[in-house]
């Protein structure tokens, strides 16, 4: 494995699946023939409930190494999470044809024999129980079982202490935002110039308070909307500087962390109010152009099933991706406003959707 794949493997073994995705997804051209690359991405997506991404990457890994048992096990879990029990059983039986001692395939069949009801499988998917059917990359080393009980407890305590502080440090937000305050009443409004939003002093104060509150609740899209409202309003320069200070600490999300997503119809009504927010929109690729450093296409929003076209938005990707004209995709992107009525998406990540199965 190369350096980045080794790092991704370490992150995966410690359960940091979203970090694996963030590290590897932009490097698809570099590793386009690597089974390890697509497998790590696939099972990381699987463990973060991104089933579209899991399907895309695991099938690519299978195309590179068709008889790979771990990839087949990942696809079996994918089918279970999609409630396709018969396909999962078929995969497990196929694995056992080649390896009669495959404990994960045997475990999967035993679980399904005990209870294959949709309710039970849904419960296992939600609780993470289906992940027991994947090769366990986080199994403790054998020496742990040989340690004295006291030493084991110390090690476990140290592990959980480190884990706790690691998780809490990730959840902290910039503390200086707490200290941001507005000028005294009477200095909140600029009485000169033309503005998109005309707000009273109370509305300005409320919008600023909402932006801070949303920021600390990790509702970054809602915070950014209030920041945009202030920046486009008759608020004073001092107020706008405080609002910009909040925006500097808004972080880029991924498919699993983005929240409060605005619809295409909402954004079209007033693009500037939603500039720099992050969305996931689904649609079909049109006018695909692949350059050396940039991919562009038009996303036919809502048209992934050739039924309802909500609108068309241009998307730019500054990373490599395996795309084809007409692909149905989910796009995670940042809204970039060009003028009062125009905007495009700066793509952060993209996942292909499986073709919809028609009922016969």
Structure description:
It is a single chain. This protein has helices spanning 3-13, 17-24, 35-47, 51-64, 69-81, 85-98, 103-114, 118-127, 143-146, 149-171, 201-216, 220-231, 237-247, 264-269, and strands at residues 278-290, 295-301, 311-317, 328-339, 342-352. The protein folds into three domains: 3-133, Tetratricopeptide repeat domain (Serine Threonine Protein Phosphatase 5, Tetratricopeptide repeat); 175-247, no CATH class; 264-352, Beta Barrel (OB fold (Dihydrolipoamide Acetyltransferase, E2P)). 31% of the residues are buried. The radius of gyration is 24 Å and the shape is elongated. By secondary structure, the chain is α+β, with helices and mostly antiparallel strands. Helices cover 46% and strands 14% of the residues.
Which outline best applies?
A: elongated
The ordered H/E elements are: HHHHHHHHHHHHHHEEEEE
What is the class of the largest domain in the CATH system?
Mainly Alpha
Distance between the termini: 45 Å
How many domains make up the coordinates?
3
Helix content: 40-55%
In total, the number of strands is: 5
Give the strand order, joined by hyphens, for the main sheet: 1-2-3-5-4
Q: Can you tell me the CATH architecture of the largest domain?
A: Alpha Horseshoe
Uncertain residue ranges: 137-171
Q: Given the structure, what is the number of helices? A: 14
For the CA atoms, what is the radius of gyration? 24 Å
Mean pLDDT: 85
Given helix and strand content, the structural type is alpha+beta
CATH homologous superfamily name of the largest domain?
Tetratricopeptide repeat domain
How does the major sheet shape up?
A: 5 strands, mixed, barrel
- For this structure, the CATH topology of the largest domain is Serine Threonine Protein Phosphatase 5, Tetratricopeptide repeat
Strand content: 5-15%
